[in-house]
Amino acid sequence: MALKIYNTLTRKKEDFKPIKKGEVGFYQCGPTVYWTQHLGNIRAMVMADVIVRTLKYLDYEVNFVRNYTDVGHLTSDEDFGEDKLEKGARREGKTPQEIADKYIKIFENDVHNVNTLPTTVSPRATESVKEIIKMVETLLDKGFAYKTDLAIYFDVSKAKDYTRLSHQKQEENIAGAGTGDVNDPEKINPADFVLWFFKKGVHQNAIQTWNSPWGEGFPGWHIECSAMSKKFIGETIDIHMGGVEHIPVHHTNEIAQSESANDKNFVNYWIHNEHLLVDGGKMSKSQGTSYSVQEIKEKGYKPLSLRYFFLQAHYRSKQNFTWDAMRASQTGLINLYGQVAKLDSDKTFLEKIFSFKGRIDEKYKKEFVEKLEDDFNTPQALSVVSSLLKSNLSDKDKLATILDFDKVLGLNLHNAKSNAPKIFSEEIIPHNIVMLMEKRKEARDNKNYEEADRLRNEIEKLGFEIKDTSEGQKIFKK
């Protein structure tokens, strides 16, 4: 079976054929770094990580590029409003550069916590202004763009099959474009989008600006990804990934400007991840549901439990985050660690060196690969893990196989012994007890011994006894 990818452009699964044999150029639209990224954005990063890990597992060499937007992304997500970095700078009394540095650091710590592999390169838009200007010049020279007193626009009427990604009628594609704060009387078509803003009008006090052949200003959001993907991958990309919200505007505009400038197909396979809901609704800062990885940790959950939660839904499916679901995911992961830990019966370093090593079972690996090759189906891949653990294979073969699978899952199963509670019975510890154990461990790690004692008493009232050993907490039923 060959790897099949659901291509948003064609609305069907297609056999994956890379431009260069054994190599993949993969571009993901990265975060606008003016705020801490919420769990929906982190889910997108985990889904991209699964794709990268799968491609590597299938022996592809992956050039994975994910950008940072640190200029030009306006609060409307279209061509009116305030630059988000400047909004963040005003909010915190910092420069836009300081804001970008701060939130890139937080983002990189968050994605590290959920065990995503590093990118090949993570360019900032502000580091590619030279390439952006060059692409705008090309579009002007070829007649795809025009200049007004306020900006340089891309003329969508000149683009070939402009809405083929969104499948929308052009008049519906960018509702409201050309209205709001930058209503430009010289704009030709309502859907025309900005390639370069001048330091004029509502942007006369813009902080981040550069000199250009046409005047001082800053790039529009859409042109940035086109320039960066060309710079770090090439004129044609194997795979481009982003959220479904980017289909009608951002990615539609990327296609138009890239193909007009380069005279080549821009992307061969478009991948779009669905949204993460919270309690069945949209994440909202105003309603306090725009949760972050730090908030997950503060409530006693391990970031890898969040990753395990994300793996339980397909990237093209909406997923609903609740605290009950988070508790269930952490319990499930800890129990998985417990099952994997029991497979490793070697007790000493010498035994590990000289004992028989298990073999990766080809039957289960074939099933695992088939699930992944079906458009990166992680829920089905996890079902293979479950079947493997229930099988009649030897413990050593199970362990070797599941550790091989973890190259894709990224759950750190090789550290299962240190991650799992030391359980001396086959009975699964109830999730509320597991949660109390985790909270108690965190309290002890933070030297909050009063809280640790309180949690011990709570555990004992529920019929369990907990002991602290050199190997960590051990739990017994009374």
Automatic annotation (TrEMBL):
EC primary class: ligase
Domain of life: Bacteria
Catalytic activity: tRNA(Cys) + L-cysteine + ATP = L-cysteinyl-tRNA(Cys) + AMP + diphosphate
Keyword terms, alphabetized: Aminoacyl-tRNA synthetase, ATP-binding, Cytoplasm, Ligase, Metal-binding, Nucleotide-binding, Protein biosynthesis, Zinc
Cofactor notes: Binds 1 zinc ion per subunit.
Subcellular compartments: Cytoplasm
Molecular function GO labels: ATP binding; cysteine-tRNA ligase activity; zinc ion binding
One of the GO biological process terms: cysteinyl-tRNA aminoacylation
Coiled coil: none
Any one GO cellular component localisation term in the record: cytosol
Cofactor: Zn(2+)
Location of the Cysteinyl-tRNA synthetase class Ia DALR domain: 367-420
Binding site for Zn(2+): C29, C225, H250, E254
Keyword field contains Cytoplasm: yes
Residue interval(s) of motif 'HIGH' region: 31-41
Motif ('KMSKS' region): 282-286
Positions that bind ATP: K285
UniProt cross-references to Gene3D superfamilies, sorted A to Z: Cysteine-tRNA ligase, C-terminal anti-codon recognition domain, HUPs
EC assignment: 6.1.1.16
InterPro entries cross-referenced by the UniProt entry: Cys-tRNA-ligase, Cys-tRNA-synt_Ia_DALR, Cys-tRNA/MSH_ligase, CysS_C, Rossmann-like_a/b/a_fold, tRNA-synt_1_cat_dom, tRNAsynth_Ia_anticodon-bd
Family: Belongs to the class-I aminoacyl-tRNA synthetase family.
HAMAP family cross-referenced by the UniProt entry: Cys_tRNA_synth (MF_00041)
Subunit-level organization: Monomer.
Protein name per UniProt: Cysteine--tRNA ligase
Naturally occurring in which organism (per UniProt): Candidatus Campbellbacteria bacterium RIFCSPHIGHO2_12_FULL_35_10
